[in-house]
Amino acid sequence: MRRVLLLGSPNSGKSSLFNRLTGLSQRVANYPGITVDVATGKLLNLTDAELVDFPGTYSLQPISGEEAIAVDFLNQALSESDVCHVFCVADATRLEKCLHFILQVIRECGRHGKAVTVLANMADVIRDNQLIFDEAGLEEALGVPVISVSAREGTGFDQALAQVEAAPRAGGKPANRWQDTPDELLHGTAQQLAARFSPKGDVLINSQLSLDRFFLSTALGGVAFFFIMFLFFQSIFTWSAPVMDGVEALVTGLGEAVVPLIPNKVLADFVADALFGGVGAFLVFVPQIFVLTLVIGLMEDSGYLARAALICHRPLRLFGLTGKSFIPLLSGVACAIPAIYAARSVDSPRQRMMTYLAIPLMPCSARLPVYALLIAAFIPAETTLFGLVGWQGLALFAIYLFGMLTALVVTGLISKSSGGQVAEQPFVLELPPYRLPTARPILRNAWNRCRHFVTQAGKIILLVTMVVWFLGYFPNQGADLAQSWLGTLGHWVEPVFAPLGLDWRYGVAILTSFLAREVFVGTLGTIFGIEGSEDNMLPLVDQIQASGLPLGSGVALLVFFAVALQCVSTVAILAREGSTRLAISMLFSYLIFAYLLSLIVFQLFVLLT
Amino acid sequence: MNKTQTVTALWDLRSGETAWVTGFDAALSASYQGRMMEFGFQPGTRVQCQLTPGFGAPRVYAISNSVFSLDREIARSVYVSRVEPAEVGA
How many inter-chain contacts (A to B, CB under 8 Å) are there? Predict the structure, then answer.
């Protein structure tokens, strides 16, 4: 199989092109440095060729960990014989920032005997704004093919693929004119080429400026930021509520229809308690994950996230972080794993370390089912301010805010105690143009996130609920949960959780949640399923309310889940990206911290009520 | 380019002011000097300060068709000379 490399600067539309050319759904975002790993896919119209999407980089002289990875991969890939062609993507509307990189790529391709084609993306923007882009002139000046393409409209691809077909299958491409040019000369050449070939006019800059005047203004920009963040958290509950109700009704209805048809009692109990009670309870929350990913995707694609990074830079500096930490931290609201990878874009190793410390405290989507369950159990589904603000959404906002503030306090204290005044790397961030988000890739990304969540977390949840059900059902066939093996185990650990006002059932659910947080919901669903009536499958929220869990314990549980690092995958990625020592220290420190905080919260409730 | 203007730091430009890039502070690391040049901050290039958000937040600069946000540290290391108002439209 031949391989074609896809390189480009951040914000050049490289990942959109990858998706168009392969029909795959590599994550796309309008923010510098979103591609932090290498993605591959078969080219749609060339079945014997594979396209390899490299992380975006501004230069082959890296200054961040993310760029270093891209450059290392590139050097390795260019030496491999199955690499037959290189596509170098440039934003034709902002050619001046891409030209130095293009020249570097052409030079390296020449040195390795690889054919290269420059794909000048955003042909649609050039056309719509009546800008002039001299494709033929640039091609002549560079000495390699230059093809105008539009990732948005899918134009120019046939010509691009024709270049791959025309290229030799394994090396043998004649050297190009740039292969011996030193980097210093490339700077000057890039400047001259930019002056000649960059589209003239300030239409794009002016359209961007009017929006930036609002979103970055000292007063209104801050208000807009908080308003957008507030809407973000409200939408997670309000937009997903009808679908969640539908999924819940479907799971309950299906359970009530299927279980009576199973003749074997043990099997029927297993299907009712473990499958519909455990896994079903977790599936109810998938629509919220969808909405969460969708809204983050909208913000990324619109170009607003880069502005948010700018707004947050100064405040984050006070806590040992940088504006560039904002994107990994917000990604952490969806999932800590891509967030840890995204932290590679933080140039300073020290600030990157602080970002690692903060990410597991961000309220990830795995916490959402736990938060949503506990909030629904204690907060009424009512609204205020003429129906505009829901109390449940407000409670979710508060617990998310708590997680974020905890992250800042932790990094701030550690930063101050370990010499916070050390000079940091400068903050330089490209502000991409504002764009109307494209629905298809955002919806597809949200769908893929849910699918990944269900298939990956679902496997763990199914396994854990099966084990929990087995231990809870035997040896007395579900007659008395307290006397089961699970009950015995639960009573051993109960003294640890009793100071938080939690009985052994919640203790067992917490223990299993160290595999993944959302397992808590599945475990509770299974436990209450075994305990409950066979004829009446109540939603888990109702069962929690009926279990007599005090409000103080509910809040203590929320606090515990906000702080503890209960995710095996996150610990593993932290060990890989940071160090094993860092991962283990964070696991135990956050566990002790979570326990102490929730203990204080519960005891305060006891004192005050 | 008007070379008679006093050289100042990019950070000192007010919102809406335009200047020519003249060079970099020697204290700025070579890697960042290189990166700034790759972004288009080459001596002789015209740069405009677009926005100066309050509270010391990074400022917004337009160079050619690209827009960058630079914090105080790096914007103080880029030297510019202001463009006379008569030159701005040129």
Answer: 124
Q: Is the distance from CB of A85 to CB of A115 less than 8 angstroms? A: yes
pLDDT of residue A232: 78
The Cα A401–Cα A162 span in angstroms is 52
A423, part of any domain: no
For residues A375-392, give the mean pLDDT: 80
In this predicted complex, what is the ipTM?
0.91
Cα A362 from chain centre: 12
Give the distance between the most distant pair of CA atoms in chain A: 83
Same domain as A325, residue A193 = no
pLDDT tens digits, one per residue of A460-484? 778 878 888 888 888 888 777 778 8
Count the Cβ atoms, other than its own, within 10 Å of residue A184: 10
- Tell whether A82 and A227 lie within a shared domain: no
In angstroms, rounded to a whole number, what is the distance separating the alpha carbons of residues A144 and A176? 8
- Pick the most confident of A140-149, A359-368, A387-396: A140-149
Do A218 and A337 reside in the same domain of the chain?
yes
How close B67 comes to chain A (CA, Å)? 5
Supply the pLDDT for residue A360. 95
Same domain, A356 and A486: yes
Say yes or no: A98 and A221 in one domain: no
Q: Note whether B57 contacts A314, CB cutoff 8 Å.
A: yes
Domain boundary among A200, A222, A245: A200
Domain residues for A44? 2-200
Q: What is the CATH number of the domain that holds A188?
A: 3.40.50.300
Picking from A132, A427, A430 by the largest number of B CB atoms within 10 A of its own CB, the best residue to mutate is: A427
Class of domain B7-83: mainly beta
Q: What pLDDT score does A180 carry? A: 81
B57/A contact by beta carbon, under 8 A: yes
**pLDDT of B90 strictly over 50:** no
**B23 contacts chain A (CB < 8 A):** no
Indicate the number of domains in chain A. 2
Of A139, A169, A200, the domain-final residue = A200
Residue A140 is assigned to a structural domain of this protein: yes
Residue in B38, B68, B29, B73 with CA at minimum distance from that of residue A57:
B38
Q: What is the largest CA-CA distance in chain B?
A: 35
Q: Are residues A494 and A546 in the same domain?
A: yes
E strand or H helix that includes residue A290: helix A286-302
Q: Check residue B5 and give its pLDDT.
A: 64
Mean pLDDT over each residue of chain A, to the nearest integer: 84
Query: What's the rounded Cα separation, in Å, for the pair A248 and A218?
Result: 45
Q: Which two tokens stand for residue A245?
A: 């109700």
Interface test mutation site (partner B, options A205, A324, A421, A430, max chain B beta carbons within 10 A): A205
Please indicate, yes or no, whether residues A79 and A172 belong to a single structural domain of this protein.
yes
Domain boundaries, chain B: 7-83
How far does CA A596 lie from the centroid of its chain?
Answer: 29
* Most trustworthy range by pLDDT among A186-190, A239-243, A283-287, A581-585: A581-585
DSSP A22-81: HS------SSTT---S-EEEEETTEEEEEEEEPPP-S-SS--SHHHHHHHHHHHHHHTST
Does residue A475 have a cis bond before it (omega within 30 degrees)? Answer: yes
* Structure-block tokens of residue B33: 């000097």
B32 Cβ under 8 Å from any chain A Cβ = yes
Specify if A425 maps to a domain: no
Q: Are residues A207 and A155 in the same domain?
A: no
- Compute how many other C-beta atoms are within 10 angstroms of the C-beta atom of residue A372: 22
> Angle CA(A315)–CA(A317)–CA(A323) in degrees, nearest 5?
80
Other CB atoms within a 10 A radius of the CB of residue B77 amount to 22
A569 falls within a domain: yes
Highest mean pLDDT among A131-135, A231-235, A335-339, A341-345: A131-135
